[in-house]
Write a structure and sequence with these properties.
- This protein is mostly helical.
- The chain has one domain.
- The chain has 16 helices and 2 strands.
- Strands 1-2 form a two-stranded antiparallel ribbon.
- α2 crosses α7, α6 packs across α7 and α13 runs antiparallel to α14.
- The longest helix is centred in the middle third of the chain and has 35 residues.
- The protein is globular, with a radius of gyration of 23 Å.
Length: 411
């Protein structure tokens, strides 16, 4: 297969940037294994260990800030600092943070202990907000179009409504809504995964223990890169949000797969779990147990790989640059394919200790869940299809992707 190279996709120099973050993650996990550190602090350590080497690589080697798509211009001398415009942007940023915090205070969902890890990291928020001003000042002096979403939000707060662009403001609001919803979840998932790893220990003996450690390490890498994606939506890494999903259907199909919505849907409509899982089903056959474990972990490795290759660009419901490398060389939705296939292997809904009717019911329920992910894939393609680079990539996959190769081989 020839390399995938539609014009306008993520640069070739960026394709392996995730390796630096993965190495930092591995180093941090080795150190944390015997550190007995509080989970919120462990989350910060893992994030820093992955983000710092990746950030240095993006700036010093990849030089992502010089990409035309970053919206920054380095072909001319920097413009003088515009403190008035920067202050308007900063007001928009601070106002947005305040509005999100008000939402967390207002909604009872975020009062639950489930979000404790995220809430404890709030101690870092003042430093984050203070440190943002010099960044805004520098970026503003380099921007091709400085009247961005932050400036629009600042004008809105100042009552300068005639200066606002509703299209830009709507995209800005949707992008921050994505961050506000998903960032707490990913931080909680990362903290929970670290807690499970530390409690279980790193000294597996049985096949299932090896499987559990491998599973948690893979999921940990996945949610770590997801966390970094929601945190580092900045132009200096060319990882800013180009656009957010514009349709209600796209939002509903995505949010349905995450807490708190998934908890209700799972209990009431999609309870496809059987009376025993794969490890119980195959407990008397170590060989099959090992093979089945390998297939599950292999699928989860593809799922994690599909997140890692985004680098700092990962995010649900947004367009932050077209990815056409890694597993995306072979198909358009490798994460969805691998995740959904793994569920069939993990919960084996087609096997029932009760009767065949129960097995059929569970299979239908899991197929319905697969259908939600198919809807997510369709809405994502419709959103990204506004970008000519994605249309070119999609056409290439239709001709050279994995399924196209399979079709040709069986003709």
């Amino acid at each position: 297969m020839q390399p995938v190279p539609p014009a306008g996709v993520v640069s070739r120099s960026e394709r392996y940037a995730f390796v630096a973050g993965l190495a930092g993650y591995a180093a941090a996990m080795c150190w944390l294994a015997g550190a007995h550190m509080p989970i919120p602090l462990a989350v910060v350590v893992v994030l820093a260990a992955a983000a710092i080497p990746m950030g240095l690589l993006y700036v010093l080697v990849i030089r992502a800030h010089r990409n035309e798509s970053s919206g920054l211009d380095f072909s001319r001398p920097p413009q003088p600092f515009n403190f008035e415009r920067t202050l308007v942007k900063y007001l928009g940023f601070v106002g947005t943070i305040g509005f999100i915090l008000f939402g967390y205070w207002l909604l009872r969902e975020y009062h639950q202990g489930f979000y404790d890890t995220f809430k404890q990291l709030g101690a870092f928020l003042p430093w984050f907000v203070l440190g943002a001003f010099p960044y805004f000042l520098w970026v503003d002096s380099r921007m091709v179009r400085p009247e961005d979403g932050y400036w629009q939000a600042g004008c809105l707060l100042l009552g300068r409504w005639r200066h606002t662009d509703r299209v830009i403001l709507r995209g800005y609001a949707l992008g921050w809504l994505v961050k506000a919803f998903f960032m707490p979840l990913m931080v909680v998932f990362l903290g929970s995964n670290l807690r499970d790893l530390f409690q279980a220990g790193f000294h597996p003996v049985t096949i299932i223990q090896y499987h559990d450690v491998g599973w948690r390490l893979l999921i940990g890498a996945d949610v770590l890169f997801a966390c970094m994606g929601y945190i580092f939506t900045v132009r200096v890494f060319d990882s800013h949000i180009r656009s957010a999903e514009p349709t209600l259907l796209g939002w509903v199909s995505a949010l349905a797969c995450y807490p708190p919505f998934w908890g209700f849907l799972e209990a009431q409509y999609f309870s496809y779990y059987g009376r025993f899982a794969w490890d119980i089903w195959l407990k008397d056959s170590p060989t099959m147990l090992s093979i089945w474990s390998g297939m599950i972990l292999g699928l989860m490795a593809i799922y994690g790989w599909a997140t890692l290759v985004f680098g700092f660009r990962f995010s649900n419901l947004t367009h932050r640059g077209i990815i056409a490398h890694g597993p995306y060389r072979w198909m358009k939705h490798p994460a969805y394919w691998s995740k959904n296939l793994s569920w069939w292997l993990i919960d084996i809904p087609f096997i029932s200790s009760a009767n065949w009717q129960e097995g059929v019911q569970h299979c239908i329920m899991l197929l319905a869940l697969n259908g939600i992910y198919a809807m997510r894939a369709w809405t994502e393609e419709r959103h990204l299809g506004a970008d000519p680079a994605y249309r070119q990539y999609s056409s290439w996959i239709a001709e050279h992707g994995l399924f196209a190769r399979i079709r040709r081989s069986i003709r």
